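so my prof wants the structure for this chain in the tokens format not the other one, which i didnt know existed until like an hour ago. anyway here's the sequence
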Amino acid sequence: MYISFTNTPKQADTETQGKKRRPGRRTVSSTVVTLGIVSMLTDISSESVSAILPLYITGFLGMSTIAFGFLDGFYQGISALVRIAGGYTSDRLDQPKWVAFTGYALAAVARVGLLFASGFGALTAVITADRIGKGIRTAPRDAVITASSRPANLGAAFGVHRTLDNIGAAIGPLLAFFILLLIPDGYGTIFVASLGFAVVGVTILGLFVPNVRSRSRGSLSEPKPKFDWSSITSGPMRRVLAASGILGLLTIGDGFIYLVLQARGDFAAQWFPLMYVGTNIAFLAFAIPLGRLADRVGRARVFVYGHVGLLGAYLAAIVPMADIAATILCLALLGAFYAATDGVLAALAAQLTPPEARGTGIAAAQTVVALSRFISAAGFGIYWFLVGREVAMITVAALLLVAVPVVAWLLRAHLAAPRDAVESADAEQSQ
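here's what i got, hopefully its the right format
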């Protein structure tokens, strides 16, 4: 990956005038890289907590899988309540950096609460504050990435950002693992370290990330265009939102998959916190290649068929095979799934919405995913409790096997490469 340290696509174009760029080389704005560093530090903070949350809740605090399912779903889904508000505010004020900053700062403050929360109600309150912060920041941050990148490079730009993000997501669980190795039951120490990384990330965002805006400077003094919700709720975005919701309902939390692996034998139980590291290492390996692939063959195509990786992870967790092989295969497939869906969905939503509604469009897609995954995690926790882990996993795997071709049919008009997809979307919007 060739990284050109430029702040905007226009500047990058100016700097490269007169130079013949080598085939296959791509440029990524320094703004994207700096945001990636902010996300890396923030993910060290959040994932060091997420890695021990299943054990902390079910082991240290002694709660049931129903309680964990609710909290895990809450952890994933509560941000959905404010994602659209964050994206909409960013679009209307045209201040994406500072809206994102508010979200990052709120999540950092929530880390203080972890030092004192020990009951179900207190944990719920802390998770609510943390996830509201995530909901506020995600769409404005992705809007800055989009405004700092060339349209044809969006998949690669999001791939670079998600790669840096997931370096932090790999370091966080490692940090938690070594703290628990040195200090048994050292959850409080993990929470203090989490707070420190969050504060550093917010500081870098405030000082070093420019407020790159979706509208051009010349248009800032002009009256803001009337926001048209139909650009989000109709046309091509309607199908993307429906597809995201269907697949999100069949995406159970990683914690459940890790608990299934833990129940298989001693290997996963011994290295439980490091399973998050394995997933994120796989993400690191696949994020940039799959982002580039999405730019070439179509973002909707990569997003849909990325769920085949999730299906494979479900099957690897339950089919008879050696515990070590099952764990490694499951983590690799989970990493590939996230690499093919996370940033790719944001790039797809940005591709199908106009600049003045870009933050809201990205937020709408992410909101649908977060809400559907909240329902999925909460429902799966209850279903596991009633029928057992193997039957529960087989059921969700069978449903996903049916859903993937159904969603591929639903998005059949958008499975082309980005340029062709945009033309198809414009035609559909005009009908």
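also thought this was worth mentioning. The CA atoms of residues 263 and 269 lie 7 Å apart.
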